Amino acid sequence: MNPIRKKKLEAEILRILSMAILEGKVKDPRVFLPTFHRIEITDDLKKADIYFTALCNNNERKKLMAGLSSSAGFLSSLVGKQLHLHTNPRFFFAWDNNYIKSLEVIQLIEEAKPKTLYEELHPGEGQVSSANAEVASDQAANEEPEDEPPAS
Questions:
Q1: How does pLDDT run across 41-94, given as a tens digit for each residue?
Q2: What is the domain extent for residue 19?
Q3: In percent, how much of the chain has pLDDT > 70?
Q4: Helix (H) or strand (E) holding 12
Q5: Do β-strands 35-41 and 90-95 pair in parallel, antiparallel, or remain unpaired?
Q6: Helix (H), strand (E) at residue 95
Q7: CB within 10 Å: which end of the chain, N or C, has fewer?
Q8: Overall number of domains in the chain
Q9: Rounded to an integer, what distance in angstroms lies between the CA atom of residue 36 and that of residue 94?
Q10: Dihedral sign from CA coordinates of 21, 27, 33, 37
């Protein structure tokens, strides 16, 4: 299969799955707002590994996995109908550990960044955020100038 077509198909499958869950088409109460990150589909479109995460603890994660696994057939037929596929792929859902690990790496990088001189001199104080700086500059720009006496 053409790699570009495959990427487009994978993106469309993820979109359809997300919309099906958001629109409440999956009636299983164990399925509660997973975030689908990536999909790996075989070239013959017979198998698709779908990686996801969700804001939940381990017990809820197991329930979510069971709910998605039991809804896999319905979701596969839904995707097949919407994309007019000759063969519906068989879905296998897996927790996306790579995504979680990437978030941990990003956090470690943020912690390892060298501090600015201001942060070293004033520990615990936050820097002025760009949003606050914009508000302050907007307020200063909107202040009306005081009436100046006419020059004589």
A1: 999 999 999 999 998 898 999 999 999 999 999 999 999 999 998 889 999 999
A2: 3-101
A3: 81
A4: helix 3-22
A5: unpaired
A6: strand 90-95
A7: C
A8: 1
A9: 10
A10: negative
